[in-house]
Write a structure and sequence with these properties.
By secondary structure, the protein is an alpha/beta fold. It has one domain (8-368): Purple Acid Phosphatase, chain A, domain 2. The protein has 11 helices and 16 strands. The strands form 3 sheets. Strands 1, 2, 5, 6, 13, 14, 15 and 16 form an 8-stranded mixed sheet that branches. Strands 7-8-9-10-12-11 form a 6-stranded mixed sheet, covered by helices on one side. The chain has a two-stranded parallel ribbon with strand order 3-4. The chain is globular and about 60 Å long. β15 and β16 (291-293) form a beta hairpin.
Length: 370
């Protein structure tokens, strides 16, 4: 990357990027969309992505064909084709974070290949632990200062048999996470930016524990936090001298509920000694999974979702994290019900082998209660 102006940095961020198919969309999701529409998926917003010195996103699906069994649903779902990486890169995303709960869904070899394929496509990759805990990208300024963008996940590891020794930057101990931020701040003479995979899905506001953690990170020197995982937008908070985007929602994804289709491109201007400035460009994921600048009505919805004032004024904020988890359980039930509706509405579109496997898996889950 080119050297940046002294004491300044303009960075954009987007939410979850999926190049593969959600399990409910197997055979008709993002992998097929990219094969068919190619660069058109992001062409409607590429001019915005390129209007910053650096743009970072979270790569939410394994992007590797290693171990792929094309007609076997567990092998195919949430797996992107490496050929689609170029469309993300050409549209203006520079840095990909790979620390998330889907990183090892298709094994360690596929994870390593995803990192390799991303590097070959021209990305910088963050969120990979190299044995010394290095999970960041250095950005060099003209005066020699270095800014860091680092990626971590606090979500439990779901796929690997040895979650205590995974190749991505999984952080399960809050105290160690804070100490890591302190250490990075000492090394970093420029700006410190954290991309974090955290929280629970489908709730449009953060958990009390997330707010507490975010405040701690800002207090030890993080300038900006870009959050993701919830698949829906959450508020933006100014706290002391920092800026917290609790969730940027989806960006490239094949989910169907309306809330998961409302998103944003966050553009932050950092100047040494000043409060960060930012703007959020409202974006919609269309029904065909292409991206477009949001309509007037959608823009108003997006603005409301991003409003910290909206959250603060809510009379129904969760009283604690247990209350928050109960609400999440309710949202998961709604999502599952909507997935059945989506599947039935689109049953004629599925390849026969995925259609039959999806029916069998659903029946098994209903019988076993898992």
């Amino acid at each position: 990357m080119r050297k940046l102006s002294a004491g300044r940095l303009t960075v954009s961020a987007v939410g979850d990027i999926s190049l593969g198919d959600h399990p409910v969309c197997a055979g008709i999701g993002m992998r097929k969309v990219f094969a068919k529409k190619k660069e058109k998926v992001l062409s409607g917003v590429a001019h915005v992505l390129k209007d910053s010195e650096v743009c970072v996103g979270n790569l939410e699906t394994v992007t590797s064909d290693i171990g792929l069994k094309p007609y076997w649903l567990p092998s195919y779902e949430m797996r992107g084709s490496p050929s689609a990486l170029k469309y993300i890169r050409d549209a203006g995303v520079d840095i990909l974070g790979v620390a998330n709960n889907h990183a090892l869904q298709h094994g360690r070899e596929a994870f390593s290949d995803m990192v390799k394929q991303s590097l070959e496509a021209g990305f910088s990759v963050i969120g990979v632990d190299d044995g010394d805990g290095k999970c960041f990208q250095k950005l060099v300024h003209e005066n020699g200062d270095e800014s860091f963008i680092y990626s971590i996940s606090t979500r439990p590891e779901e796929w690997d048999e040895h979650p205590g020794d995974v190749p991505y930057s999984l952080r399960t101990d809050t105290e160690q996470l804070i100490e890591e931020a302190k250490a990075l701040r000492k090394q970093c003479s420029g700006f410190l930016i954290c991309s974090i995979h955290w929280g629970l899905e489908f709730l449009d506001y953060p958990a009390p524990a997330q707010i507490e953690l975010a405040h701690q990170l800002i207090e030890v020197g993080v300038d900006v936090i870009f959050g993701h995982h919830s698949h829906v937008l959450q508020p933006v908070e100014r706290y002391k001298n920092g800026l917290i985007f609790y969730s940027l929602g989806n960006f490239v994804f094949d989910l169907w509920p309306r809330a998961t289709k409302l998103t944003t491109i966050a553009k932050v201007k950092l100047v040494k000694g000043r409060m960060p400035e930012y703007e959020c460009i409202p974006v919609e994921i269309r029904d065909d999974c292409t991206l477009a600048i949001a309509s007037t009505s959608a823009s108003k919805e997006i603005s409301s979702l991003l409003s910290w004032e909206r959250y603060e004024a809510s009379p129904d904020k969760p009283v604690d994290d247990q209350d928050y988890r109960l609400r999440y359980g309710n949202e998961r039930k709604r999502f599952r019900y909507s997935s059945y509706q989506y599947f039935l509405r689109n049953c004629f579109r599925y390849p026969p082998w995925f259609f039959i496997q999806s029916l069998a898996r659903t029946a098994l889950r209903r019988l076993t209660g898992t």
